[in-house]
Design goal:
This protein folds into two domains: 3-73, no CATH class; 83-146, no CATH class. The protein has one helix spanning 71-76; strands spanning 3-9, 12-23, 36-48, 53-55, 65-67, 93-99, 105-112, 115-123, 129-136, 139-146. Helices cover 4% and strands 50% of the residues. The protein has 157 residues and is mainly beta.
């Protein structure tokens, strides 16, 4: 059975049809947000996310690729880590989400050109909250609440 997936190569999002694929993680909790891998695929479309153009995918690459079945996850994979917001001529702001290998949410925050603004959340791979803190223009300001993996507060008030 084949599956449609997406991976990012710098400013390009590649749409593929993967024929033989496996999850990257041994334990997948949420298939919609999990990372997969394949070497047997067909390139269906290549999109330039800066110019908003479709590029002819006539070439075929046969290498191991890691992909998501959710296009948004592919676009924003390592977006902050690699400072990819800088490739947008007018800058980029928006909600950033990163996921554990098992598909559970790892971190979530709003950013303005890479600077965290507002509530910053991290989660354990079991889905429980790990940290809640606040940022103003990329600097910690206000709350900094930490939780144990079982959901209890580290330092109860």
């Amino acid at each position: 059975m084949s599956i449609i997936g997406y991976y990012k190569d710098y400013r390009y999002v590649v749409t593929i049809r993967a024929n033989d694929y496996t999850p990257f993680s041994k334990t997948v909790i949420n298939p919609e947000t999990a990372l997969y891998k394949t070497q047997n695929y067909e390139i269906l479309k290549i999109e330039d996310i800066i110019e908003n153009e479709i590029i002819d995918p006539t070439f075929r690459i046969k290498k191991l690729v890691y992909f998501y079945i959710n296009k948004e996850l592919a676009i924003f994979d390592k977006f902050i880590e690699y400072e990819e917001y800088k490739i947008f001529p007018l800058g980029y702001s928006g909600m950033y989400r990163e996921y554990h290998e098992n598909g559970n949410l790892y971190k979530q925050f709003y950013h303005i050109n890479g600077k965290i603004q507002g509530e910053f959340l991290t989660f354990y791979d079991n889905g429980n909250r790990q940290i809640i803190c606040d940022y103003v223009q990329g600097e910690k300001f206000g709350r900094n609440i930490e939780y144990k993996i079982n959901g209890e507060l580290y330092f109860p008030l």
